From TrEMBL:
Keywords: NAD, Transferase. It is an enzyme of class 2 (transferase). It holds the Pfam family PTS_2-RNA. It catalyses: 2'-phospho-[ligated tRNA] + NAD(+) = mature tRNA + ADP-alpha-D-ribose 1'',2''-cyclic phosphate + nicotinamide. Residues 66-88 have a biased composition (Basic and acidic residues). Its EC number is 2.7.1.160. The keyword DNA damage does not apply. Residues 45-88 are annotated as: Disordered. GO terms for biological process: tRNA splicing, via endonucleolytic cleavage and ligation. GO terms for molecular function: tRNA 2'-phosphotransferase activity. InterPro entries: Ptrans_KptA/Tpt1, RNA_2'-PTrans_C, RNA_2'-PTrans_N. This is 2'-phosphotransferase. It comes from the Eukaryota.
Amino acid sequence: MWASASNGVRVVRQSAFYSTPFSYLRFGMSYMANHNNFSGGSSYMPSISSSAHSRKSGRGGSSDSGARDDRRRGRDGGGGRGSKDGRMDKIDALGRLLTRILRHMASQMNLEMRSDGFVRVRDLLRLNMTTFANIRLSSYTVDDIREAVRRDNKQRFSLLEENGELLIRANQGHTVNVVESESLLKPILSADEVSVCVHGTYKKNLESILQSGLKRMKRLHVHFSSGLPTDNEVISGMRRDVNVLIFLDVKKAIQEGMKLYISDNKVILTEGFDGVVPVKFFEKIETWPGRQPIPFREFRSGSQNSVENPTLASVILVV
């Protein structure tokens, strides 16, 4: 590991990874993701074939999973675009590959990553990998990296110049355990620092969430947005097609010892307790965009969590 950033360190720009449709990147050594329906889990396994594979996967489970979200991010309009003839833009393809590497694959690629998530750009460009645009990573330049960072509209990257060395990191969304929350993120110490803390999800996930809480799944954190899907200032933190909003009681969470953080691109994150944000910390649940309240108070006080429970039945009907 390298020493932490000292005085004189300059943050060049915060930006991010590209939105990507549900697809896989083609590598020199390709990977195929296995999806567990309704669990939100995913894992990478080596594949002999270099062709791309995909599987239809649902949005079940109690939280959003890591790598699968990155593959589907194109639906949110989060990055660069392909060319008019349908071929993937060179810089867009680079951004998508950086997303996968920096959030999920640094250890597998033997890429040296600091506890704050930063890696050397020159180390990235030495990896023996190929993008979906069929361009080898080693053929890209530092200027291409900067352009990929500049183009993204969700600010998922940060660039850093330290002692003449250019570094890059993902601001959030990691599954690699080398990253430490205290090094990567800024702690939230008071509810006054957060005006809105909301997790966007889908109707089909609500029953599981009310039974088990919000789970971080394969990621290091449960993700919350600092605003609603239509707020212009909200850049990242949830998809814009969600239909259920779960608001966190930030004051109660902090009072009871839950650690909350905020990323450079304004995503609110928490490890919860043992990877779970219990239902008792939900302030309210609403439909979106209708903003109709969904009753769930009995679950906060420990009622029986089962499909037969009248309260849960009413929740499903309201949704």
